Amino acid sequence: MKMLKMLLLLIVMTLLLIESQASEQIITIGASLSSEKMEFEFQQAVSHLNAKSKQRHIKFQSSTILMDSNPIRSALDICDKLLTQHVFTVVASHPNSTDHSPISVSYTCGYYKIPVLGISARDSAFSDTNVHTMFLRTVPPYSHQADVWVQLLVNLSWYKVIFVYSADEEGRAILSRFQTLAEEVNIRIEPSIKYTPGEKNYTSVLEPILKCTSRVILLSASTEDAEKIYHDAELMGMTGEDWAWIVSEQAFEAYNIPVGFLGVHLVNGTNEVNHIKDAVEVIGEAFIRLMSSDNISSPPTGCNESESWSNGDDVYNALKATKIEGETGQVSFNEKGDRVNPMYEIMNINANRRAMSVGLFGHKDQAIGLRMMGNNLTWPGNVHVKPKGEKISRNLTIVTLVEKPFVEVTPLPKDGVCRPVYPAKHAFPCKNGTQDLCCMGYCMDMLAKISKDVQFNFTIHLSKDGLFGSFERHNSSDKKYWNGMMGELMRQEADLIVAPLTINPERANDIDFTKPFKYQGLNILVRKTQKDSSLASFLQPFQDTLWILVGLSVHVVALVLYLLDRFSPFGRFKLAKSDDTEEDALNLSSAMWFSWGVLLNSGIGEGTPRSFSARVLGMVWAGFAMIIVASYTANLAAFLVLDRPEALISGIDDPRLRNPNEKFKYATVKGSAVEMYFKRQVELSTMYRNMENQKKYYTAEAAIADIRLGELQAFIWDSPRLEYEASNDCDLTTAGDLFGRSGLGIGLPKNSPWTHDVSMAVLRMHESGFMEQLDNSWILVDSKSNCPESNSAPATLGLTNMAGVFMMVAGGIVAGILLIFIEIAYKRHRGLKEKELELARNAADRWRGNIEKRRTLRQTLQKQKEEQLKANSVQKQPVKAPSHSTAVNSVAPKMNSNNTGTKTVIPPPYRRPSLLEATRERDCLPPPPPMDYPAPSYVPARSGRTVTWHNPSHSTDNLV
């Protein structure tokens, strides 16, 4: 009974063991290796993979053979010894003591769709997936050295090289890969020289290199060919100073490699053990991931089967998609099955002819790329100064164009000697096609300094089309080309562009720029808007209505003052106990004078109000006048500050630029960096389209000329040029602030050997202050401004502003002269009347005098007659009364004769003549006044409202 139970238990356990074995998937990994030691390492790697794997339903087994150096035997061994073991994939190395590639393994396994993982095959032929359909490798092909070469050239700033390669598949592969990568970083192969492998002499192959300008040689050659090439190159002087060589891994192993050569070395490239471990781990990761989702059929069991493995492509794709961090670094594959991101060392042959590691390239510690370790490299000729990489010519060709004040041209004198014109310090001959000219200006003075510092000679010519450079299509093709100075530099028609060339991204993609020699921005040039100054410009602080009200107020106040002072009882007064005359009330004329005098702040000596009411009004009027005058003065000052020529627009954000009308036109130079700037900026696209529809300007001079003529309202251009124009033409000005700031630089071909030296020369000129001197001499506004006023200074009065005041004074003078003539005429007319009156009064006075004399004479005669009659009456009594005739005769004058015969007329008795008789007698007329007789002055005397005139020379007693 016990025996029966034990038998049943044994049967059950056997069945369970068979079932577990049936559910476990066994993956056999084959290997064709170089030695028994490598077979042992492979078996250890597979065992380690089983111990490491967490998938218990998958078990990995190993099956190995030694690779035969004979490809046929190697293929037979794969069929007879590996495929019969149901291998899912094969790890292939190389035969012992040789470096033959496992090409037979790839062909045999590839036919049956069994993936092969190479660990030492570096031939570029294995990258052809049409031939080697199932081949992967943990080492990169030799052609991938081109990746390192490109990065090394960029790091050393060499962009023109000579490529020497063998006329075999390996040489063609590395050349093709290098050309593809070099085009992306603008590295140009000057010549590519192909040689035939196995030749005994390569002098004829190397001779064309001496005629090239490049001095950087890339060599892809086997070790045997490299030894011969080095020997011939050394005899031709191509391994000395100023040369640079970068060689492939095989060429770097030559025993006679010269000092200073650079090469690459694959890290762990020959470490077969590490590559076996990485290959096994890749296979394990791929199968675990693949079998977790799919079932895999069994592979072929020999070469006698005609069908390929159905799951071979799935396994191959799973292997390509695997990425691990292995013993040799990051292991991953590209679409061709080649290892990517391997680790390379940059090697350098030092003075002792020993290879030294000077850098790393590849994936390590999350860093991909080239990392150089210091700059202590040894270069050919046993020097430590990096070669320039080109055969440098000291005779350079300079291209420029006319752009004031940077470049100005004058005709070449007859003697052929260019002489600078102030402020230029240098003038150089230059050509414009066939025309000989002299070039001078800001850039020419700078070029003279740079050529002296860097030590080169130069010839100058102007740009053929007069353009800075922009993209344009040729012959209606889709491809664009540079025109202008940029095109000449790209076509190698010039070595340098020395002009105000703006540094922008489009140009920097195709050429090199030095450090900026001037920082600038964009600005807008417009004509100044001159305000017309009328004769009444001094009246601007007040509006016309206010002036009218002020003038009306003067006269209203004057009238009210007159009325208040006239009707006030205190308008006239006399102080008590004072002999002073009574002060009269303010008349209308004096009131007008007072009102104007207070307003104009003139001294009032007389004619002031006398009454209290009028004086209160006078004080209020004085306060009003003070406020008006102060307001006028302050407002006039404000008008003077603001009353200046202004720009037509405020700046780039002005609505007239963003939303222009048909009458407002603005532009920039066609094909310039400014146009590129507007084309590049999305927010300025409207302005760019508007300028495209306007008149095209190909030079700044044409646009500035139209600005002066008024045909163009605004010109957008570089600020130095616009500041120069505004400083030399007072009718022009710049509007708004700078925008689109950039720099002006010297242009050189891409990767030119002169770029560094010229840039350093520009920096030294900045540090020494030389560039500041050029700015002061050529560009700055203050240095050459001839305008009557500076834009930043306060406005000042001119004749145009105050012409009205002078006209007002002139009008006052003319009015005074006219009034004086009227007064003279009036005075003359009145003087004639007064003279007639004076003559009448003088005649009357003489007449009265004569009358008095005659009266006195009559009285005297009467008294004498009475006395005579009295005496006669005493002598002759009685006397008979005389008759009438006798009386008449006695009255009549008697003529007495004396001894001289003169008759004495005895006047008749006195009879008072009439006024008519008196005036008819000549002796009654007054004598004419003498010539110097002064006119009598008459003093008016007030008597109520009646005015009488008195002559102070006559007394009232003389009146009859």
From TrEMBL:
One of its GO terms (molecular function) is ligand-gated monoatomic ion channel activity. Residues 395-781 form the Ionotropic glutamate receptor C-terminal domain. GO terms for cellular component: NMDA selective glutamate receptor complex; postsynaptic density; postsynaptic membrane. Residues 1-22 form the signal peptide. Residues 429-491 form the Ionotropic glutamate receptor L-glutamate and glycine-binding domain. Gene3D superfamilies: 1.10.287.70, 3.40.50.2300, Periplasmic binding protein-like II (3.40.190.10). Disulfide bonds join 730-787. The chain crosses the membrane at residues 546-564, 616-642, 805-826. L-glutamate binds at residues 500, 502, 507, 718. Residues 883-903 have a biased composition (Polar residues). The record marks 679 as: Interaction with the cone snail toxin Con-ikot-ikot. InterPro entries: ANF_lig-bd_rcpt, CaM-bd_C0_NMDA_rcpt_NR1, Glu/Gly-bd, Iono_Glu_rcpt_met, Ionotropic_Glu_rcpt, Iontro_rcpt_C, NMDA1-like_ligand-bd, NMDA1-like_N. Residues 865-911 are annotated as: Disordered. GO terms for biological process: ionotropic glutamate receptor signaling pathway. This is Glutamate [NMDA] receptor subunit 1. The lineage of its organism: Eukaryota, Metazoa, Spiralia, Lophotrochozoa, Mollusca. The gene is 106064568.
